[in-house]
Amino acid sequence: MDYASTNVVWCYWQGKKSFNHTHCWEVVKTCKRFQIIPTGPTVVLNETPLHETPASDSPMDSPMSQDSPIENSQGLLGGRRRRRREGELSKHQAMRIEMDLKQQEHDMAIQVEYAKEREYVRKEREYVREQNIEKKDRETMAMDTSHMSPETKQFWKLERRDVMRRRLFRDDGPSNTDCQ
Predict the structure, then answer these.
(1) Region 76-83: what's the mean pLDDT?
(2) Where is the stretch described as Disordered (predicted)?
């Protein structure tokens, strides 16, 4: 867009100077030292000015134009659109929050189910371990030592004593140190 044809470009480097080099405008138009000051007529499309002029003599700047029904209806439509857009955004946010909550509930349910499963597996392993100990104890108590050497007989005698001690303490019931 050729701003130099309808507007004056001011350079703020060494005071206010007019910028007349239109061939290099594309390079310097983003520089902060240059400011576009409109001098030509205000371009109006559908009664909406494309750029503001500080002191314009257009009929749109009169106090009556501010109360015109066209301006008010556009303002109302713009406000409605903005409110509708904000309402849609809040609906989307509410839906996202609801989906996040459902996901959290689902994750918690999975964690609870997983914890129950781990507890079941732990109890199952403990039961199997106890059954293996019981089986070993029964085999120890039922072992025939008549054909064994005196050292081996002594070993199995001590093993039987340990089994009896374990059974006595296990079957004795809760002791004074148990917190049940």
Answers:
(1) 70
(2) 45-93, 132-155
pLDDT tens digits along 22-41: 777 777 777 777 666 666 66
Q: Considering just the CA atoms, what is the radius of gyration of the chain in Å?
A: 46
Task: Say whether both 79 and 58 belong to one domain.
Answer: no
Task: Tell me how far apart the alpha carbons of residues 109 and 103 are, in angstroms, rounded to a whole number.
Answer: 10
Q: Where are the beta strands (DSSP E) in 3-52?
A: 7-11, 17-19, 34-38, 44-45, 48-49
Residue at a domain's end among 43, 63, 83: 63
Residue with tokens 């310097």: 28
3-state secondary structure of 122: helix
Is residue 69 a part of any domain in this protein?
no
Residue of 32, 36, 12 lying closest to 22 (CA atoms)? 36
Q: In the structure, how many helices (H) and strands (E) does the chain have? A: 4, 5
50 and 134 belong to one structural domain: no
Asked whether the whole model's pTM tops 0.70, one would answer no
Number of domains in the chain: 2
Show the domain range for 37.
Answer: 3-63
